[in-house]
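R.M. (postdoc): so does anyone remember the format we settled on? I'll just put the C-alpha cells first.
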C-alpha cells in the first residue's frame, strides 16, 4: 500500500484494481487512465501524472487513485479538456490539506472551500476546471464537483470516500473497495455477471429469479453496464 510520509494509511491506500480493471469500471480507455494516474510520454515529451505525486510504473491502482480518477472523469466528459491543467491544483491541495488523495476526501468539498478557492487563484486554473465558484455571493461547488459529490459516500467527520454510487443514489449499483473486490455490484452480485447472462439470452425475470433479487435490480445492472460500455471511448 502506498502513502506519503506522515500520512496515515486508510481505505484509500488499499490496492483494489489493476489499471485495466479500473479503466473498465470507470468507462475510460486504459491508456488514458494510465496517463491520469501515472503519467505518459508522447513525441519525446514527458507528462507527469495528475494523481500520483510522481511516476512509479505500478499497475496496481489504489482506491484513492480510483476515486480521484472518477472525479477527473467528470471533468473530462463535461469539458473535453486536458486534465494536466489540474495537476498543480491537486499537488497544492495534497500539501495544504495534508491528505494523499485530496480529491477522494471530503475536506475540499465541504469544510475547506475557501482553501480550494485560494489554490485555484494561485494556480490560475480555468473556470471550466474549477472545483468551487462564487455564485450570488456564496462559495459553492462547481457543476463537475457537485456531480461527483452526489455519487459518493464519505466517512463520518468529513472523511475519505468509502463507496461510490456510479449512477445515482437511487440505483442499487454500488462500487465498494471492501466488497466484490471493488467491482460494481448489486446486493453483492457483480453487474458484469448479470449483464453477461442477459447478453447470452436470459430474460431479466429469469436472472432475477436465479439470484433471488428484484427485476428492477437486474435492470439497473444492465443499464449501468450498457452505459459504461458505451462510454469507454468517450472519456
Amino acid at each position: 500500500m502506498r502513502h506519503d510520509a506522515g500520512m496515515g494509511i486508510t481505505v484509500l491506500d488499499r490496492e483494489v484494481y489493476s489499471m485495466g480493471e479500473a479503466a473498465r469500471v470507470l468507462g475510460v480507455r486504459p491508456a488514458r487512465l494510465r496517463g491520469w494516474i501515472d503519467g505518459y510520454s508522447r513525441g519525446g515529451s514527458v507528462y507527469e501524472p495528475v494523481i500520483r505525486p510522481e511516476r512509479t510504473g505500478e499497475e496496481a491502482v489504489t482506491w484513492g487513485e480510483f476515486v480521484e480518477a472518477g472525479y477527473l472523469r467528470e471533468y473530462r466528459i463535461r469539458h473535453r479538456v486536458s486534465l494536466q491543467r489540474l495537476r498543480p491544483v491537486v499537488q497544492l491541495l495534497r500539501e495544504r490539506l495534508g491528505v494523499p488523495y485530496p480529491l477522494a476526501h471530503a475536506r475540499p468539498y465541504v469544510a475547506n472551500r475557501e482553501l480550494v478557492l485560494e489554490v485555484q487563484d494561485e494556480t490560475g486554473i480555468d473556470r471550466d476546471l474549477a472545483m468551487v465558484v462564487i455564485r450570488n455571493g456564496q462559495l459553492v461547488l462547481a457543476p463537475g464537483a457537485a456531480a461527483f459529490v452526489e455519487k459518493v459516500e464519505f466517512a463520518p467527520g468529513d472523511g475519505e470516500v468509502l463507496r461510490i454510487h456510479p449512477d445515482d443514489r437511487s440505483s442499487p449499483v454500488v462500487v465498494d473497495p471492501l466488497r466484490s473486490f471493488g467491482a460494481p455490484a448489486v446486493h453483492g452480485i457483480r453487474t458484469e455477471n448479470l449483464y453477461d447472462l442477459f447478453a447470452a439470452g436470459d430474460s431479466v425475470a429469469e436472472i432475477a429469479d436465479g439470484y433471488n433479487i428484484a427485476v428492477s435490480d437486474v435492470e439497473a445492472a444492465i443499464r449501468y453496464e450498457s452505459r459504461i460500455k458505451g462510454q469507454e471511448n468517450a472519456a
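R.M.: ...and that's the designed sequence above, right after the C-alpha cells. Also worth knowing: The longest strand covers residues 15-18. Residues 3-7 have pLDDT under 50 and may be disordered.
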